[in-house]
Design brief:
Length: 528
C-alpha cells in the first residue's frame, strides 16, 4: 500500500477515459456546425436528464420530432455524473449509484451498455452511526431484532404504521418530512433513520424538506389509505387489479432485493455511450446565454461557443439545465418564472474519496474473509460527526481499487453545513479522516491516499415545503411571458434520483413530441 501525507491533489491524473476522448474529438469536429433551419426542438443541458430525453426522441419519436440538437455548456456530457479512473482506482465525484428501475435498464439497453451494468450485493447493510456505534438499518427479516431502535421505538413505529397510535390525522397544510415522520412513526424513527436518510438522498434538512414533494411514494400511502400500512395494502390491491404492462423482453432481469447499480467503469459509461450515439446532434461548449420568443411562435436561442456567438431557432425547447441557471436567463423575459426558479435551494456538497489499507479498518467491521461488507454508513447530525455519510465504494462494486485497500467515498456539507463551499481540500480531507477514525478505522490507521476531492457549490435541489407550488408558478410564468414552448425538465422537476431523471427523460421526450406535433401550424407558417 502506498501511503502519503494528506494531499490536496488527487493522486491520479484526471485525464478523461479513452471513450470520452473519442467523443470529445468527434463533438469538436461538429462544433462549428450551426444549422440554419428551424429545429423541432433543442435539448438544453446534457446531464443524464437531457441525454435520456434526446435518446428517447431519437429512438421513439423520430416520426414527430425530425430535427433536434442537444446543447451543453461544459466541454463534456454527463452533468454531475463524473466517474474518473487512474492508478488502479475508479471513483465517482458526483452520484455513486442508482436504483435499477426499468427506465434505467431501458436507457442502458438503448445505449448498448447493458452488458456493462454492475449491481451491488442486495444483502449489503446500510449502517447508521448512533451512540458511538455503527448499527445496521432494518432490511426485512431482521426488522424485530436490529438494535438501531429501542423496543419502545419499534412498538411506536409499528402502531403508527397501522394507524393505531399517531400524533393526529394528516393536516391540511403541507408537512415537512420531520413533521410527517414524527406524527406517523414516532421520534426514534425520525431521529435515527429518516434524518440520516435525508442526508443520504438530498444532503437535506428534514425540517425543511416537504414529505409530499421529496418522498411522494410514502406520502401518498397515508393520503390514500389513512395509514402507511393501509395505503400499502390499497396499493397492492390496485396493482393486482391493474397489472403493469409486460416488461420489454430485451431488458436485463430485474436485480433481486433492494440493491443499487452502476457500470463496470462507473456511471459515466452510460452518459458517454448516449453522447457517442448522438454525437452529430450534440454541441458541447455551447453555453445558452439568452432565449426569446418570435412572432411566429418559435424560439431563438443564443449561445456562447468557441467560435463566437451562435443562434438556433426551434419550435420547442426541452430545458434540463439547473433551475438557478435558467433563472438567470429568464430575468428580463419572464421575471415571475425567473423568481420562482431562483428560489429553489441547491446547497453545496463535497465528495472526498480516500483509500486506506484494509488492515486500517476496525476488526469488528470485517467479515470472516477479511472483507468489509456494506453499502455505507450515514451519520445523524446529532451524533457529533461532520461528514454526512460514507459509501464503501470498493465493497459495493468490483474493481474500484487495488487489492488490499478500501476505497471510501465521503460526502460532506449539505443544507445544514454550507461552509464546505469555502473550505480548502486539505481541511475537507482532514475532517473526513478525523470522522472516519471515530467510527470505522483503527485510531492508528495510516494517513489516507487522497484519490479525489470535488466540491459542488450548488449540488442537489431541495424539494422543500412549497416546491411543487413554486414549480407551478415557474410554468405559469413562462406561459404568461409567451414562452410556453420552453418545457421544463431536469432533476428539480423529475426528482433528484438518477432513476427518476431517467424515467422523466422518457416522459419528457413524449411531452416534447406532443408539443411539436401540436405546434405544426407554426411549422407550416414558416415553410410558407
Ligand atoms: C454529490 C452528489 C451525489 C449524488 N448522489 C446520487 C446517487 O448516488 N444516486 C442518485 O440517484 N443520484 C445522486 N445524485 C443526484 C443526481 O446525480 C442528479 O440529480 C442528476 O445527475 C441530475 O441530472 P440532470 O441532467 O438533471 O442535471 P445536471 O447533471 O446538473 O445536468 C445539467 C447540465 O446542464 C448544463 N448547463 C447548465 N447551464 C447551461 C447553459 N446555460 N447552457 C448549456 N448547458 C448548461 C450543465 O453543464 C449540465 O451538464 C447526486 C448528486 C450530487 C451532486
Ligand atoms: C450523504 C450524501 C449523499 C449520499 N447519496 C446522496 C447524497 C446526497 C444522493 C443519493 N443517494 C441515493 C439517491 C437516490 C435515491 C433514490 O430514490 O433512488 C440519491 C439522490 C440513494 C441512496 N443512498 C442511500 C440510501 C438509503 C438511498 C436510497 C435508496 C437505497 O436505499 O438504496 C444511503 C447513502 N447515501 C449516501 C451514503 C453515504 C449512504 C449510506 C448508507 C451518500
Amino acid at each position: 500500500m502506498q501511503q502519503q501525507a494528506l494531499a490536496p491533489k488527487p493522486c491520479c491524473s484526471q485525464a478523461p477515459t479513452r471513450f470520452s476522448q473519442r467523443m470529445r474529438r468527434s463533438v469538436a469536429a461538429a462544433a462549428g456546425n450551426v444549422p440554419s433551419e428551424v429545429l423541432d426542438t433543442v435539448v438544453v443541458g446534457a446531464g443524464i436528464s437531457g441525454l435520456v430525453t434526446a435518446q428517447a426522441l431519437q429512438t421513439k419519436h423520430g416520426d414527430k420530432v425530425q430535427s433536434f440538437l442537444v446543447t451543453e455548456g461544459r466541454e463534456r456530457v454527463g452533468g454531475n455524473i463524473t466517474s474518473l479512473q487512474g492508478d488502479g482506482y475508479i471513483w465517482e465525484e458526483g452520484p455513486n449509484s442508482f436504483q435499477p428501475n426499468d427506465a434505467m435498464l431501458q436507457a442502458a439497453v438503448d445505449a448498448g451498455v447493458d452488458k456493462d451494468l454492475v449491481f451491488g450485493d442486495p444483502t449489503a447493510p446500510r449502517f447508521v452511526f448512533w451512540e458511538k456505534k455503527l448499527r445496521a438499518t432494518p432490511s426485512g427479516p431482521d426488522a424485530l431484532t436490529f438494535d438501531l431502535l429501542s423496543i419502545w421505538g419499534k412498538i411506536r413505529a409499528g402502531l403508527g404504521a397501522v394507524g393505531i397510535v399517531k400524533g393526529g390525522p394528516m393536516p391540511e397544510y403541507e408537512e415537512s418530512v420531520e413533521q410527517f415522520i414524527r406524527r406517523n412513526l414516532g421520534d426514534e424513527v425520525f431521529e435515527r433513520l429518516i434524518e440520516p436518510f435525508c442526508s443520504g438522498v438530498y444532503a437535506g434538512n428534514p425540517s425543511k424538506l416537504s414529505m409530499k414533494a421529496a418522498f411522494q411514494r410514502i406520502w401518498i400511502l397515508e393520503k390514500n389509505g389513512g395509514s402507511l400500512v393501509g395505503g400499502a395494502i390499497k396499493l397492492f390491491q390496485d396493482r393486482k387489479n391493474n397489472p403493469p404492462a409486460p416488461r420489454d423482453p430485451r431488458l436485463p432481469p430485474k436485480p433481486k432485493g433492494q440493491t443499487v447499480g452502476s457500470f463496470n467503469k462507473g456511471l459515466r459509461v452510460l452518459t458517454d455511450a448516449i453522447g457517442a450515439k448522438l454525437q452529430d446532434k450534440i454541441r458541447v461548449n455551447w453555453k445558452l446565454t439568452s432565449i426569446s420568443g418570435t412572432p411566429e411562435g418559435l424560439y431563438k436561442l443564443t449561445y456562447d461557443t468557441p467560435e463566437g456567438a451562435a443562434t438556433l431557432t426551434a419550435r420547442s425547447v426541452a430545458m434540463t439545465i439547473p433551475a438557478w441557471a435558467l433563472a438567470d436567463l429568464l430575468k428580463e423575459k419572464a421575471p415571475a418564472a425567473s423568481q420562482a426558479l431562483a428560489s429553489f435551494d441547491y446547497p453545496p456538497v463535497g465528495a472526498v474519496t480516500l483509500a486506506y489499507p484494509t488492515s486500517a479498518v476496525r476488526e469488528d467491521r470485517k467479515a470472516a474473509d477479511g472483507s468489509v461488507p456494506g453499502f455505507g454508513q450515514l451519520h445523524p447530525r446529532s451524533q457529533g460527526v461532520t461528514t454526512l455519510g460514507t459509501i464503501y465504494s470498493s465493497s459495493l462494486f468490483p474493481g474500484r481499487c487495488p487489492n488490499g485497500e478500501m476505497l471510501l467515498l465521503n460526502y460532506i456539507g449539505g443544507a445544514t453545513n454550507r461552509s464546505v463551499k469555502d473550505a480548502s481540500q486539505e481541511e475537507l480531507v482532514a475532517q473526513v479522516d478525523k470522522d472516519l477514525r471515530t467510527m470505522l478505522l483503527k485510531p492508528d490507521a495510516p494517513q489516507p491516499r487522497v484519490v479525489g476531492v470535488r466540491v459542488w457549490p450548488r449540488a442537489i435541489p431541495q424539494f422543500n415545503v412549497g416546491h411543487l407550488d413554486t414549480l407551478d408558478e415557474a410554468k405559469q410564468g413562462l406561459k404568461a411571458a409567451g414562452l410556453d414552448g420552453v418545457l421544463l425538465g431536469g432533476n428539480y422537476v423529475a426528482g433528484v434520483a438518477l432513476g427518476k431523471c431517467v424515467e422523466y427523460g422518457f416522459e419528457f421526450a413524449e411531452q416534447v413530441s406532443k408539443y411539436v406535433d401540436a405546434a405544426a401550424p407554426a411549422k407550416q407558417k414558416v415553410a410558407a
